[in-house]
Design a protein that fits this description.
With 128 residues, the protein is mostly helical. The protein has one domain (14-116): Arc Repressor Mutant, subunit A, CATH 1.10.10. Helix content is 52%, strand content 11%. It contains six helices and three strands, in the order H-H-E-H-H-E-E-H-H. A three-stranded antiparallel beta sheet has the order 1-3-2. A hairpin with a 5-residue loop joins strand 2 and strand 3 (80-85). The chain is globular and about 60 Å long. The termini are far apart.
């Protein structure tokens, strides 16, 4: 990978755009939840935990606009809406699984390092 000008540092670079999309706090979690199959909005809120309905709606709309998630409205009374990954969205299943595995293996170490790090540049590190 090149770090020269004209690569991922340009604002219109496709890689940078993709990283900005999946770098959002709730994007990867939402995609991971949908990797198990279609879910309704309320099911996603419950499964993900900690996300507000409003923020989840914004995340789902952004993922739809990017072609990673589909919204299916079933003709029922009341209408039932489900979200699922598109074919393009499914291409992120393996990278997200790898990232999830990395987090399982290294999450505790990262948390310990963050707790030991100084809170601001002039502060001494916390003692273990």
């Amino acid at each position: 990978m090149s770090l020269r000008p004209g690569t991922v540092f340009l604002s219109d670079c496709p890689a940078r755009s993709a990283i900005e999309l999946i770098g959002s706090k709730w994007t990867v979690v939402t995609l991971f939840a949908l990797s198990k199959g279609p879910l309704r909005h309320g099911e996603l809120v419950e499964l993900i935990g900690g996300v507000s309905r409003k923020v989840l709606t914004q995340t789902l709309r952004r993922l739809q606009a990017s072609g990673l998630v589909e919204r299916h409205v079933h003709a029922e009374a009341p209408p039932r809406v489900e979200y699922s990954l598109t074919e393009l969205g499914r291409t992120l299943e393996q990278p997200i699984a790898l990232l999830t595995e990395w987090a399982r293996e290294n999450g505790a170490t990262v948390a310990r390092n963050q707790e030991a790090a100084p809170r601001d540049p002039g502060e001494a590190p916390a003692r273990p």
